[in-house]
Structures are given as C-alpha cells and as structure tokens.
Amino acid sequence: MSDMLVAEKLYTVEALMALGSDARIEVIEGEIVEMSPVGGLHHFIGGNIYRALDRYAQETNYGYAFMDGLLYLLHKEGPGIRGAQVPDVSFIRAADMITDWKIEQPYPGAPTMAVEVMSPDDKIEEVLRRVRRYLQAGTEQVWVVFPYDKELHQYPRETPSTVRIYREGDTLDGGGLLPDFTLIVKDIFVVPRFAK
Question: Is 150 buried (19+), middle (13-18) or exposed (0-12) by CB count in 10 A?
C-alpha cells in the first residue's frame, strides 16, 4: 500500500462569510472554533479602551479603532485561511491600512494593535498563544487586560520576551506606536454604578 498525502482543505473567506453575521467564530490552525459568549464587565472594559482609541483616531487621523467583532485573517495559504482571530478591540494605523480591503468582509491582514480582555474562564496559556499568533502575523503590540487584577500587560513585537505591566495608578504612553496617546489605566476599569 502506498502512502498518500491528502491535501488539507482550508476554509475560504466566502465559506466563512456564508456562516452568517451571527456566527462568532475564529480559525485556529485551519479549524473553525466557536467563540464563547462574554459578560458585561468584559464589554464595559473593552468599550472604555475602544472609546479612548477611537477618540485618538478621530482627533489625529492617525488610524482607525475597531470594536469587538472584526475578524482578522492572520494566516492564509492561497485562498484558504489557516488562522483568523477577533480581538476585543483593535487599531490599524492609517499607513498600515490595506487599501483594497472589501470592508464588508474580514480584514485581510493583522491589526497594528490588538487588545484581549480576559474573561473568568480564559486560560492564560491560550491567551498567550493568541498573543503569539498576532505578533507572528505582524501586529506591533498586543494588550492583555486583566479585569480582576486591574492590570494591562503590553506585549511589543520588537521585544516579545519583554512584557510591560501597567497597574491602576499608571498612565500608559502610546510611544512610537500611538504618538501622543496616553491612557490612565484606572479609567479602563470604570463601570457604571449599578454594576457590581
């Protein structure tokens, strides 16, 4: 019996889009993975970061901020997709924007910056794999936000083994990635008074 190499069939953009706009999915190593639902705390924190980035984008015309839901095609092989992820918040620098992007479809590349907000059931090992996939695909920086510890961990692409940790009393500086952008870390964790 001869050994046969069976070609792996990867999903195309069209196949992903055919799943419908309600499908909350990602593609990990060529396999479609359903995303778990998240709670209100997750959305309030993500919203706080999104509003700060969107305000910065509007005031400077330096780029575009995106809220949860935009699928980024991180790793393609021909027409097939091997890796695609949905960050909780993302930012694309105007100079990095892929100009032939058909905006009704997933973004055909990596964001300049991605934000992941930890949920109670997230495993840190899997989140770190997500961070690595972003950085390998070209994302310059990934922020991982820990709601209960009230920390933001910043992973830069140029020095991936260096993690900068910001706590409630700190102010995050956008540096070369987001010139003149600052974010008071405690403001990330503000939730409405009714929330416990």
Answer: middle
Average pLDDT rounded to a whole number, residues 158-185: 93
| Per-position DSSP letters for 43-55, written without gaps between them | HHHHHHHHHHHHH
Q: 155: which 2 tokens?
A: 């992973």
> Has this prediction a pTM greater than 0.70?
yes
DSSP secondary structure letters along 83-103: EEE--SEEEEEGGG--TT--T
CA-nearest of 157, 161, 162 to 139 is 157
What span, in angstroms and rounded, lies between the C-alpha atoms of 185 and 62?
22
Domains in the chain, please, with CATH?
A: 13-188 (3.90.1570.10)
Distance in angstroms (rounded) separating the CA atoms of residues 73 and 86 = 9
